Model the fold of this input.
Amino acid sequence: MKKIDVAVLGLGGMGGTHVGAAKASKYVKNIYGYEPDAGRAALRGKELGVKATSDLDSILNNPEIKLIYIAAINPVHAELTIKSLRAGKAVMCEKPMAENLKDAKEMIKVQKETGNFLQIGFELHYSKIYMTAKEWIDKGLIGKVVNSHCRYYCSEFHSRNTWRSNSKGTLIGEKLSHYIDLQRWFTGSQVKEVFSMTAPNVVDYFNHPDNHQISMRFKNGAISNLNFCMYLGESDHRDPLLEMLEKQSDDGHFLQYHIFGTKGAIETDVFRRRIRRWEFTDGPEHLVSKIVDKVTYTKSEDNDWIHNTHGQNVRIAELVAKGLPPENPATDSFETMRAGFAAEISEREQRIVKLSELK
Ligand SMILES: NC(=O)c1ccc[n+]([C@@H]2O[C@H](COP(=O)([O-])OP(=O)(O)OC[C@H]3O[C@@H](n4cnc5c(N)ncnc54)[C@H](O)[C@@H]3O)[C@@H](O)[C@H]2O)c1
Done:
């Protein structure tokens, strides 16, 4: 079995998760870390138990390092991805792919030029709640998907004066790209046009909107809607998706999908730890709707079911060690980014934006 060395660029919270996945992979030999500040590199390297450096070139020029995980702040994703691809590395880059269309396009261009592995961190494709929904859709259990609604209300856990709250980049890239990506995945069609609105902020210290209402129309006629606000759930001061408290199931936190098909519907409900399916049949007087499937899981299974970054990254190390291509190609993630950038334009210019405008 071939083992590879890997590096993690950016050793913050998510960098720690990536190091944990690399440690859990039987395909990984040595793990290196990078932080631009030497003091922070030494500190985080010690805390995470990896060889950390502030010299990026020492990582890029190390021929044993085959795979680079990028978990740095969003503005440097494109630059680090491009440098790593050009240095001959396979790359797994966290979402958002980039903060603007130009950078995202450049990442795809360099991936195509180099032919190297590039996968974006849309780990919900590896999370059982959404994999189950996709499996039911692919089996035809709800017929053709015609509409989907995502309702995501959480608490404010980004905090004053952090890179997230200070960023001018919207939460469409930082958070909602995951959920736009799922609406594309479930619908199985290209996005044709986007209309998005945002209401005045409640969180006055964010440099970007704290709420978004994004509607998309797909080429096959299906539509979708995503409603997000970052303040309703009772405060917990931590990422509510990582700290699943029983009380959050009824204190204003919602992360639900309703996926409507011609023969039935699916509901995914993160804060209630369940996925359900409805079946529609012809009754003598009216359409009959019945709940026919319900799967629940326990708190100890949250990671596998909700945000399986760990499982995704363990799998990516295996793919790279075996010389296999990405399971979720970056070109597909680019389409999600394009829809997100279209939503940003729509909010600024207060109009419907056709995806064909974003060349
Ligand atoms: N997929 C997910 O669900 C998910 C969840 C959380 C975070 N993320 C993403 O992971 C990334 C990191 O988020 P986080 O929560 O770990 O933030 P964080 O603030 O905890 O860590 C960011 C790290 O990047 C480092 N950094 C700053 N400039 C850098 C540079 N030029 N090169 C390398 N490192 C640099 C910082 O020093 C810090 O250690 C973000 O892009 C975020 O969107 C994804």
